[in-house]
């Protein structure tokens, strides 16, 4: 393996830059040439790439977003698009590719392997929705961003004696809502994995008010409902002023936490080691605090399950 390509794809996540840095620096350390492929698979299909050196990744470990930029590419999902990508890889003599992204990006990486290009996946998404790894790069930063926002919402919410619904991202996964609900002391956590009962949520709010609570906070995962609609129903049922806040893309930005930078650095270095060791179709991740690598195609078939201990604990503590 002499030349490696690296790309970021799908929604960006804080810590992706730290992962790019780790890939580029480890590859150069092992005397490889590295190309940064711009805008994910779109850059691969349209030959948008640049050679990276040690300075290309200087001063980025602390920066959110991705210096390689990212995109969701429809072209690569077609055979014609993938053929173009293969030509580009041949022209630039790229022997293997490291893909940083979520499940859609890894599905693309599996395709690369099937086309005979060794590819390794690094989990980069705020959603934490990949079952084979305990954490994905970006999740820790996103939950810290949300918890900081919740603290601010609490201040105004208790001044006015209101109920506040905070809607967070996560697509079909409730992890951001679950962990932030626990860390932010939410009364209720509404996530796609567990059916919710509006009347039970309202009873909790009213019980809290009757024992002198100044406000109520509900964490809602985007995959479980709509904050505005939920706020309307709760206001009607509890007669308490209710507001909804949709945090949106603020959750995807910001300087990555130390935890995300460390995870990204370790995963980036492991991905390079795997490619140089002749491995392909592996997804790297973290399990019980150890860096692991697993078959990427199989990893994508594992169904993500909710951490019920955390959910039950959050329910007990918000009684
Ligand atoms: O996958 C990351 C994510 O932020 C999801 O949580 C969210 O549903 C989606 O991307 C939003 O995508 P976009 O940035 O394309 O609107």
Automatic annotation (TrEMBL):
Gene3D superfamilies: 3.40.50.450, Phosphofructokinase domain. SUPFAM superfamilies: Phosphofructokinase (SSF53784). GO terms for biological process: canonical glycolysis; fructose 1,6-bisphosphate metabolic process; fructose 6-phosphate metabolic process. It is found in: Cytoplasm. Keywords: Allosteric enzyme, ATP-binding, Cytoplasm, Glycolysis, Kinase, Magnesium, Metal-binding, Nucleotide-binding, Transferase. Mg(2+) binds at residue 103. GO terms for cellular component: 6-phosphofructokinase complex. NCBIfam families: PFKA_ATP (TIGR02482), PRK03202.1 (NF002872). Catalyzes the phosphorylation of D-fructose 6-phosphate to fructose 1,6-bisphosphate by ATP, the first committing step of glycolysis. This is ATP-dependent 6-phosphofructokinase. It comes from Anoxynatronum buryatiense. The lineage of its organism: Bacteria, Bacillati, Bacillota, Clostridia, Eubacteriales.
């Amino acid at each position: 393996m002499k030349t490696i390509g690296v790309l970021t794809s799908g929604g960006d996540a804080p810590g992706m830059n730290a992962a790019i840095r780790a890939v580029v620096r480890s590859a150069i350390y092992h005397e490889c040439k590295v190309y940064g492929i711009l805008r994910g698979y779109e850059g691969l299909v349209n030959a948008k790439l640049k050679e990276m050196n040690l300075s290309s990744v200087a001063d980025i470990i602390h920066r959110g977003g991705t210096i390689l930029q990212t995109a969701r590419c429809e072209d690569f999902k077609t055979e014609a698009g993938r053929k173009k990508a293969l030509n580009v890889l041949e022209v630039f003599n790229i022997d293997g590719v490291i893909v940083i992204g979520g499940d859609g990006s890894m599905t693309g990486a599996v395709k690369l392997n099937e086309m005979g290009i060794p590819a390794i996946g690094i989990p980069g998404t705020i959603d934490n929705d990949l079952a084979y790894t305990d954490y994905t790069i970006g999740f820790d930063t996103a939950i810290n961003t949300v918890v900081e926002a919740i603290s601010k919402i609490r201040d105004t919410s208790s001044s006015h004696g209101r109920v506040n619904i905070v809607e967070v991202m996560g697509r079909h996964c409730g992890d951001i809502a679950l962990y932030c609900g626990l860390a932010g002391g939410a009364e209720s956590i509404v996530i796609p994995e567990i059916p919710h009962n509006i009347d039970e949520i309202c009873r909790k709010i009213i019980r809290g008010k009757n024992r002198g609570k100044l406000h109520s906070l509900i964490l809602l995962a985007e995959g479980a409902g709509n904050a505005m609609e939920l706020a309307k129903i709760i206001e009607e049922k509890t007669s308490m002023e209710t507001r909804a806040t949709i945090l949106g893309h603020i959750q995807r930005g910001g300087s990555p936490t130390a935890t995300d930078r460390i995870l990204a650095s370790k995963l980036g270095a492991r991905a390079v080691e795997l490619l140089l060791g002749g491995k392909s179709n592996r997804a790297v991740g973290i399990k019980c605090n150890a860096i692991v690598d697993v078959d990427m195609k199989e990893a994508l078939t594992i169904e993500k399950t909710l951490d019920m201990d955390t959910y039950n604990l959050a329910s007990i503590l918000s009684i």
